[in-house]
């Protein structure tokens, strides 16, 4: 849950909803403060009897079909609370976390398929189960469609200058609908770039950072994994802590660091991505791996500096040695010449 503060002036409450972040577990809890004290609540998928343990809702429906689902709101606080209820289009943010459109934006896709009451009052310490209806339009495209439902409360406080600050805190879960028809999964890799960070130690390799866009070009949501190879080194992505899931039409910018790459001027970089169709049950449609690549221009500046330094020392030593030889040869020549003069002088005196 993220809370977004909004200024409220002249008694006009301009409240913008916080982003909904859906966790991997079935229970989502949030806390907010209002005039009556702290409010803590959770929202879970449910059936008619209450929470049913699902992390979120997945439905396979035909165009024109409807289904009734439920959400359960639990009030952990000590007072009755009226929660606002919202359904909106779903999306993944830049960090790969699922969220729904804020209250300031109007849903135009699967969020409009959900019919949900505007609010529910939950007694202290109790759970209320609320039904809602998912109705797929008759002309809906086959494939995956993302939405979410949330329960929210609004708290206000007085900010600088006496202006009221309103915060809408909301929490919920995703509602995924797969519309029947031909599934056509697909993905591409675009905009592969690289940058190199040299090691301060010229006798150690540096790190190559590769950035790429993975685009979901099909009509199903995808989970992507892959490997980047550079300079004989390979790094898999993403990490286990950051699974990458792409909705239909999504583009996700991924950054992968390949360690211990030597700066060999031209370093070939290859990227392989393995997209997998996300399914709730049954066998996922097969999807071939996709690849791309580039060539990183990596100048070995530290090594060149060392080479220049060593070369300078070698040149200096060679020059010094040659100078020493020249001086030695000059001394020997002087000695020979002096010897010849001495011999000539001695011979002249005998004559």
From TrEMBL:
Q: Signal peptide span per the entry?
A: 1-26
Q: Give TM regions.
A: 301-319
Q: Which UniProt keywords apply?
A: Membrane, Signal, Transmembrane, Transmembrane helix
| Domain of life where this protein originates | Bacteria
This chain's protein is named DUF916 domain-containing protein
What species was this sequence derived from?
A: Cellulomonas terrae
